[in-house]
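User: Fold this; tokens only.

Assistant: Input:
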Amino acid sequence: MAIIDHNRVPEVPWRPGYRKWDVTGREHGVTSTFSINTAEPGTGAPLHTHTMDELIVIMEGTLEVRVNSETHIVGKDHTLAIPPGAEHGFKVIGEKTAELLVFFPRLDPYAEGNTHYLEGTRPVPVKGS
């Protein structure tokens, strides 16, 4: 069992205005991925799909979320439960930086075989880019 100090987790370069810290991974002996993320107003994730579930817990801020053909405004204290294959993306709206907890049931969720971008590009540090 690993006990992880969030203050010692290194930041993963991601997107301008969007910061990400991968809390768990292969080095912890688990087969899932958990990250802490912050996203400034106007930033977010372009439309994409995954081959696995994704859970996004909104701890702070407000997101404009697109899932398949629907758009929703979702605030703090809500969880997005995104099934495999769902087209989704989001943008932070309002004046507050969003604080997000993101969980995937597998490792390397953003690798080319696990994520397909319908808009934009995959973040630079992701394998298979």
